[in-house]
Design a protein that fits this description.
The protein is an all-beta fold and 473 residues long. The chain contains two helices and 32 strands. A hairpin with an 8-residue loop joins β30 and β31. The longest helix has 7 residues. The N terminus is likely disordered.
């Protein structure tokens, strides 16, 4: 909660493992885009784990991984005096008036990446039921050129998820896309040529399981699950209790899927080394718990084995009827360990004060302690959250959150709320950005190369909107 009042802690227990050090992989030795000066890079996030550099990339509508996670041992965590300087009240960040860019209709997802020139972050937008991908080329000054279609499949019902990675190891970014809805969903790789053009890999499309309802709630995480230096893919299925894993071979092709029982209704997945053993784990968001009375949302951890496989899932109950909608990872309390933050689609509001979300503070073994945070909406309509991004927006060295509110109202007044972190895992104050109609996904990156985290939002009715961070240093 704001003001330092915390929800009673709950813990999710995991098994710790001994951290090992491995030699550099081919992925470490290849060209990788540099981290941003503010320390957070979406969709092309890097994770330094046990001496190897792993590309961790995700670009889903509801979940966004936006941070360079650098797991460390306790000796390298921030000392108490430095941490004390970083904890406290934060200034509110400021942003420019948003600029809207048409990019087709029915935008559901958005991803950022330097597809053409290093450091120039373009945007890719998935246009839901139109089953197309649009490309917005960046000018490097925070503005974008005209959009063009880079993928279309009239035989598929929709584009249901999109992510970014270098799947053929040529030093340029590629795109992984999931298509289909009630038919059997398909996954395919679109290989980039470094000039903003893409072609389908020779493998074509692969089936990734039975059809599911609710395409907005399928998601992708990309990371190296089997420690071979090549990006792999994990995909959730929201109406069946599975997550599918497909391993990359470094040539732009994926292995046939292996399904893991994960959760009742998994709506999203992110990757990270949550127990600091040097192996990539998965964290999932489940809208219905298997813990009685089965009305609670949960987060689910699946510890990686380093060979592409995963251990039995461990659930953490988020509380009665939270209806979680988005999940991200960052070091929220400045202890050098990865934490989780989730927001709720329909917050429980009392007298205008809403239970907005929860932070799960990690201890480096895979166990987390939960605390909730609230938001005072006053007399406005009850919010309907859709997307989450994490970055240091106000330049104070602490993780902040950006949350998209897709409240239905007349006239439409949809916002992105930016809440500064206080270094303890909670958030205080807010900056409200009136962003446009129906924001459904967020990408955070430095679009004008000034070292600050900017925000791009997919608008289901209008394409995309971009607002630049104008916070004074």
């Amino acid at each position: 909660m704001f003001g330092g009042s915390l929800h009673p802690s709950r813990e999710m227990k995991g098994t710790g493992r001994t951290k090992t050090t491995k030699e550099k992989t081919p992925m470490q030795r290849r060209r990788a885009s540099k981290s941003l000066t503010f320390g957070w890079e979406p969709f092309v996030a890097s994770m330094k784990a046990a001496g190897r550099r792993i590309r961790m990339l995700t670009g889903v509508a509801l979940l966004v991984v936006l941070i360079n996670i650098q797991p460390v041992n306790p000796q390298s965590a921030p000392n108490d005096s430095l941490k004390a300087l970083q904890i406290g009240r934060s200034v509110r960040p400021t942003f420019s008036s948003p600029i809207t860019y048409g990019s087709g209709k029915d935008a559901w997802y958005i991803a950022a990446g330097d597809f053409r020139r290093p450091g120039i972050k373009d945007l890719v937008i998935a246009n839901g039921f139109f089953a197309t991908l649009s490309f917005l080329p960046a000018n490097g000054d925070g503005t974008f050129g005209s959009s063009r279609t880079i993928f279309s499949d009239p035989e598929q019902d929709s584009v249901t998820a999109v992510a970014v990675g270098d799947f053929n190891q040529d030093g340029t970014l590629d795109i992984v896309v999931v298509t289909g809805e009630d038919d059997v969903p398909q996954i395919r790789i679109l290989l980039g040529n470094g000039r903003g053009r893409f072609r389908q890999s020779g493998q074509g499309s692969l089936p990734i399981g039975p059809g599911t309802f609710g395409p907005l709630e399928r998601s992708i995480a990309v990371a190296d699950f089997n420690t071979d230096g090549f990006p792999d893919v994990a995909v959730t299925h929201n109406s069946i209790s599975l997550v599918s894993v497909l391993l990359g071979d470094g040539t732009g092709q994926l292995s046939p899927r292996v399904d893991y029982s994960a959760a009742n209704f998994p709506i999203g997945v992110i990757a990270g080394d949550f127990n600091l053993d040097g192996k990539i784990d998965l964290a999932l968001l489940d809208q219905q718990s298997s813990i009685p009375p089965n009305q609670d949302g949960t987060t689910v951890l699946m510890f990686g084995r380093g060979d592409g496989g995963f251990d039995v899932p461990i659930q953490h109950d988020l509380g009665l009827n939270p209806n979680p909608i988005a999940l991200a990872t960052a070091d929220l309390n400045i202890d050098g360990l990865p934490d989780l933050v989730t927001i709720y689609k329909d917050p429980n509001c009392q007298a205008g004060v809403c239970r907005f979300g929860s932070t799960l503070l990690g201890d480096g073994t895979g166990a987390f302690a939960q605390q909730d945070f609230n938001f005072n909406f006053g007399n406005r309509l009850t919010p309907s959250m859709r997307a989450l991004g994490v970055a240091d927006f106000n330049l104070d060295g602490r993780a902040d959150v950006a949350i998209a509110d897709n409240t239905l109202s007349i006239p439409p007044r949809d916002f992105v709320y930016v809440l500064p972190g206080d270094g303890t895992g909670t958030f205080s104050g807010q900056t409200m950005i009136q962003i446009g109609v129906s924001p459904v996904a967020i990408a955070v990156d430095d679009f004008n190369r000034d070292g600050k985290a900017d925000i791009a939002v997919a608008l289901s009715a209008a394409g995309a909107a971009v607002t630049l961070n104008t916070t004074a240093p």
